[in-house]
Amino acid sequence: MDLTGKTAIITAGASGIGRVTAERFTELGASVCLCDVADGALADVEKALPDALVLKADVSNSGDVANLYDAFSARFGRLDILVNNAGISGPTKHVEDVTDEEWDETMAVNVTGQFYMVRKAVPLFRQAGGGCIVNLSSVAGRVGMPMRAPYSTSKYAVRGLTDVLAVELGEINVRVNAILPGLVDGPRGQRVMSEQAAARGMSLEEFMPFFLHNISMHAMVSMREIADMAAFLASDMGRHISGQSISVCGNFETY
Ligand code: NAD
What we know:
The chain is α/β, with parallel strands linked by helices. The chain has helices at 16-27, 39-48, 62-75, 100-128, 149-170, 187-199, 204-213, 223-234; strands at 7-11, 31-36, 53-56, 81-84, 131-136, 174-181, 245-248. The longest helix has 29 residues, at 100-128. The radius of gyration is 18 Å and the shape is globular. It comes from Metarhizobium album. Belongs to the short-chain dehydrogenases/reductases (SDR) family. It holds the Pfam family adh_short_C2. GO terms for molecular function: oxidoreductase activity.
């Protein structure tokens, strides 16, 4: 895979999957702009990736997104790749207990944030003669995840947005795909599993074998595997792939 000469914006790139993707894209030759809301993690990634443009921006705030694109355009001019990675896990609770605020915040970051990022990317892609968008969904956007109604619904919406954009933006040579990670080995995966176990009245030790049994490959996936799929889709190797929702999950069947 080669991303030499390409420019990429990666949202929520200061930690987790976004950071690993920013590192991988840099290794493969891309010039990277990343944003996040966490000050400490931003300072850390700025040191680790000195050539990257590191910005503080909340994707659910359209003013922040406009400022991000202004700073991006001033530095790079041309946009080739947008990785819409930012997404919060939302509450783990029965749907009847979900508050208005919890529902709205999950939709704002996970769905509206992707829309804000895409809307501003389109003129840059048009100018560049094409481009590529990778939206982070989840297997929870393919298999309904109990006790996580806001999150699961938002990740189904990401797949809907992906399908619509693939058709609409195909006209300007923009490819749009979604990645559906399964259980990812990292801090967030661990936290979500602990919450799922607690919601079922089980300990994490009891819950994990039960959960992994429903994955054909009986294992978590790594952040690097998600970053590699994003790089493959963004590279010329993926030049005829658009409108696809690709699960990287070891074949996850049910919750
Ligand atoms: P994470 O929880 O580790 O968070 C990564 C970063 O997102 C953090 O640095 C945080 O500050 C930033 N962030 C939060 N809200 C933001 C906002 N409004 N604007 C900008 N940045 C924001 O996440 P992760 O596990 O790396 O997940 C990345 C993506 O992959 C998400 O969309 C997530 O839903 C999806 N995903 C993750 C898993 C998993 O097991 N980790 C599984 C399926 C899908």
